[in-house]
Predict the 3D structure of the following.
Amino acid sequence: MPQTQIKLHKGDLPSGLDFGGAVAVDTETLGLKPHRDRLCLVQLSAGDGTAHLVQLDGRDYRAPNLKALLTDPAVLKIFHYARFDVAVLSRYLGVAVAPLYCTKIASKLVRTYTDRHGLKDLVSEILGIELSKQQQSSDWAATSLSDQQKAYAASDVLHLHKLRERLDEMLDRDGRRALAEAAFGFLPTRAALDLAGFEETDIFSH
């Protein structure tokens, strides 16, 4: 992978950025409850070793360039645990992110030999790279992010393209690509159910 670059943007992506046909996306929030814990940061990467971090101040969520990218039907958005990120992006940016790919769902469909589907575990096993999760619990609403926070945020998107490639090979090997794509397509509905208060309810159960 090329040398990592981290670029911080306030309020929106700059105009003219081209992420190609697929962009890795992640978010940082003040907690795990979208109705309570606001969106602070959106990280993006084209898989080229550069991470773009969009810092949001909690007041201005217009971000037209970011919203255009997240809703562009020609650009696949790659997440890890898309269910949460898609809900947060819907709640604060008012966008329906599509099309989607979730490395966590793909992992659960093909790595049935383990119950460890976190990003750290995936990147370690599949790519042989060790990620630090030291900044996972930190104040993402801080006016000025530390270098450690920025490095942590960037690490969550820099490897998703490679993970997707390997997981796609495993999905094809196991004949589960169609199942994965159907699950990805359901994610916006799953996120809407979470936002509507059904996050703990299995509506498919008896």
